[in-house]
Design brief:
The complex is a heterodimer of chains A (about 425) and B (about 100). With about 425 residues, chain A is of the alpha/beta class. Chain A has helices at about 1-15, 15-25, 40-55, 75-80, 95-100, 150-155, 165-175, 195-210, 230-240, 285-290, 335-350, 405-425; strands at about 35-40, 60-65, 70, 90, 105, 110-115, 120, 125-130, 130-135, 140, 180-185, 215-220, 245-250, 255-260, 265, 270, 275-280, 280-285, 295, 300, 305, 310, 315-320, 360-370, 375-385, 390-395, 400.
Chain lengths: ~425, ~100
């Protein structure tokens, strides 16, 4: 069944060039062609839907995603804290398939031939494209934490920084931990995916301990000099809600782990925990480097902000956490969704032989739970600046919550419903 | 006087050039930045608690946005977001949502 389907669209994509001209004839200057999207997260799912929607079906889209369903990183800390279930953060790709006509292929991309404009699939076969979108998220640099540089130890000391099996496993470790135990979360040096996420997780684990294991403690081992996002609001939550329960340690980079004893090895110190949660340093998903795209600091893809196109490789657009961000731009799901729309608009213009929109705008909203109900936000708006060729944060716009509040707790859950629908419904 | 005139003319020409260079889908693209919270094309998920913007009158949307921008209308976040857009961009966004059914 699956094979048949794949053979069918392989045939179709082989004729994408011919189809492009057909669509061109039928719809005047409108865009046609075949776009392959790699990765069905916040960026990839959005660009796939918007390409289909804005071209009114004129552009063919194939989305290659290794997982059978979308599982959201935002809200996943509530699963770890015991307030939500995996089902609450899982969304089907069925609407992308059936409502929007995206070919969703559950597979993995092994490599890209940017000269021939083809991608090779793990299950066999290849796809040709007129334009390629890579939305691969991040991959971890396990080699920087030698004890974690093998598959077996990665099952014991978890990151849970990609929502999925590790989210469930970390929850289980916390449930199995005896009262009076210590949970430690290690944060890598910035930039990393979701700047406020680790501090939110510390809050929600402490919130769980408060209810179920009140003698337990949370220790934050932060490789950075200071709290990376919403600092005063997080510090106030720790002082007000979790006094004596959450301990924050700055400049505490984890260099290695001793897996048998659950010990984090710092530069001059060691820290033994009952549940040790290490978020390793990260870089653009490996497919970016494998495809030969220009990286900044050997980690993040350098892109053109008018089109999200790689500065080194024409025809390849990159979204989300994998890119070298513009000033003050966070690596967030919300921002990846905005990248997806910027790229969709630009790709449709380019496929129709037109210049991309010269004045793109993107914005970010990020909600963090500090307990089961109270939330704090950070927001920003970024406008394209022709002089620097970057999207720059607008001065006087954006900001954080005045104080944690329950109203924004409701808004945060409403945000999740709406952004998931915006990507996938 | 003459110089003033030519400056005005230059400004007009520049404005015309800028208008010419603008993407015909600018309103659509700008409105899409609101869709994360307010739904694709302003059609928020029913019952989610966030305002659907599709089909709202342009005047009403612009007034709301102006009040957010000035701080006259209390908000948890929209006062911070509305200040990131120019009045012209907000006009395009309001027009786009007003035209959605």
């Amino acid at each position: 069944m699956m094979l048949m389907k794949r053979r069918d669209f392989l045939k179709m994509s082989a004729t994408a060039g011919a189809m492009a001209s057909l669509y061109g004839c039928a719809a005047g200057a409108k865009a046609g062609g075949h776009v392959v999207v790699v990765g069905g997260g916040y960026g990839g799912a959005t660009v796939a839907k918007y390409l289909r929607m804005w071209s009114q079906g004129g552009v063919q889209v194939t989305l290659v995603e290794r997982n059978p369903t979308f599982i959201s990183c935002p809200i996943s800390n509530l699963v770890i804290g015991g307030d939500k279930t995996m089902e609450d953060i899982t969304v089907s790709y069925d609407n992308l398939r059936n409502k929007w006509g995206v070919r969703v292929v559950q597979d993995e991309v092994l490599g890209v031939d940017t000269g021939k404009r083809t991608v090779t699939l793990a299950k066999g076969g290849s796809l040709s494209y007129d334009r390629l979108v890579l939305s691969p998220g991040v991959d971890f640099m396990f080699e920087q934490i030698p004890g974690l540089n093998n598959a077996a130890t990665q099952q014991k000391i978890l990151h849970a920084w990609k929502a999925g099996p590790q989210t469930v496993a970390l929850r289980q470790q916390l449930e199995a931990m005896p009262d009076g135990g210590v949970y430690a979360i290690a944060i890598p040096k910035a930039p990393y995916r979701c700047p406020p996420g680790p501090y939110e997780r510390a809050c929600l684990v402490a919130n769980y301990f408060k209810k179920a294991k009140p003698k337990s403690k949370v220790v934050i081992l932060d490789a950075n000099e200071d709290v990376q996002s919403k600092k005063p609001l997080f510090m106030k939550a720790w002082a007000d809600l979790y006094k004596g329960m959450i301990e924050y340690r700055n400049n505490s980079e984890v260099k290695d782990v001793e897996v048998a004893s659950n010990t984090a090895i710092l530069e001059f110190d060691q820290f033994k925990a009952d549940v040790l949660n290490v978020i390793p340093p990260m870089r653009a998903g490996n497919i970016a480097a494998k495809s030969g795209l220009k990286l900044v600091n050997n980690r993040w893809v350098d892109i053109n902000w008018l089109s999200m196109e790689s500065t080194s490789t024409p025809g390849v657009h990159v979204l989300g956490d994998a890119i070298f961000p513009a000033p003050t731009m966070p690596k967030s799901g919300h921002m990846a969704n905005q990248h997806g729309k910027l790229a969709a608009a630009a790709i449709l213009n380019l496929l129709a032989g037109q210049e991309p929109n010269p004045a793109p705008v993107v914005m970010n909203t990020c909600y963090s739970f500090v307990d089961s109900k109270n939330v704090i936000h950070v927001a920003s708006v970024h406008q394209y600046d022709a002089a620097t060729k970057l999207v720059q944060p607008v001065k006087g716009a954006g900001g954080v919550s005045a104080a944690r509040n329950e109203l924004e707790g409701k808004v945060a859950l409403a945000w999740a419903k709406n952004i998931w629908a915006d990507m996938l419904a | 006087m003459k110089r003033l005139k030519s400056t005005a003319l230059a400004a007009l020409l520049l404005a015309a050039a800028a208008a010419h260079a603008a993407d015909p889908n600018l309103g659509r693209n700008l409105a899409a930045t609101c869709a994360n919270c307010h739904g694709t094309d302003g059609k928020a998920v029913p019952g989610s608690g966030l305002d659907a913007l599709a089909g709202e009158s342009k005047e009403k949307l612009l007034q709301k946005l102006a009040d957010f921008k000035s701080g006259d209308k209390p908000a948890s976040i929209m006062h911070q977001i509305s200040r990131g857009y120019t009045d012209e961009q907000l006009r395009l966004i309001a027009e786009y949502f007003a035209a959605q059914k």
